[in-house]
Amino acid sequence: MTVKPAVTDNLLTPSEVATLFRVDPKTVTRWAKAGKLSSIRTLGGHRRYLESEVQALLQGIPQQRGTA
Amino acid sequence: MTVKPAVTDNLLTPSEVATLFRVDPKTVTRWAKAGKLSSIRTLGGHRRYLESEVQALLQGIPQQRGTA
DNA sequence: TCGCAGTGGGGTAATTTGGGAC
DNA sequence: CTTGTCCAAATTACCCCACTGC
């Protein structure tokens, strides 16, 4: 059934995502605040992003919501 | 986090590519719109170009499509 | 505990976008 | 046909400082 293994739910730091997109870490934070990127927060308030999410976005794959 | 594997191509900003080609950023944008240049967008809509692609073009290496 | 690098928050300047026209 | 410049708006980059993460 061509079951895809794990989704590599690896967490990336703002600088990691920023490097991937060639933007400023602050910009990545802005995306998270804008709700364009899913973010997990540490107990200290820092954000962490899903690598799978970032990879999908890099490929130009929008968030598929509702496959009606 | 200071070092990261280069699993992704280096991305250039419109002004970077424009400087490399000695043209206006607007012209670079037109190339992207014309499909002559591969480009990925940031979540904000800004374009980022592959340095490998630009370098290849700068060297006069046309994109072989169709192998006709 | 200390220190270093990274991160968050706010604000401002610079860049990029989009379309139309010459 | 291609390139450069005008307009307005949106997005991004860099400044400060205080705190987090390791």
UniProtKB/TrEMBL annotation, chains A, B:
Q: Which SUPFAM superfamilies match?
A: Putative DNA-binding domain
Q: Which residues form the HTH merR-type domain?
A: 11-59
Q: What is this protein called?
A: DNA-binding protein
What keywords does the record list, in alphabetical order? DNA-binding
Domain of life where this protein originates: Bacteria
Q: Which NCBIfam families match?
A: excise, HTH_BldC
Entry's Gene Ontology molecular function annotations: DNA binding
Q: Would I find DNA-binding among this entry's keywords?
A: yes
Q: Which Pfam families match?
A: HTH_17
One BP annotation, GO = regulation of DNA-templated transcription
Q: Does the keyword DNA-binding apply?
A: yes
Under the heading InterPro entries, the entry gives: BldC-like (IPR048048), DNA-bd_dom_put_sf (IPR009061), HTH_17 (IPR041657), MerR-type_HTH_dom (IPR000551), SinI_DNA-bd (IPR010093)
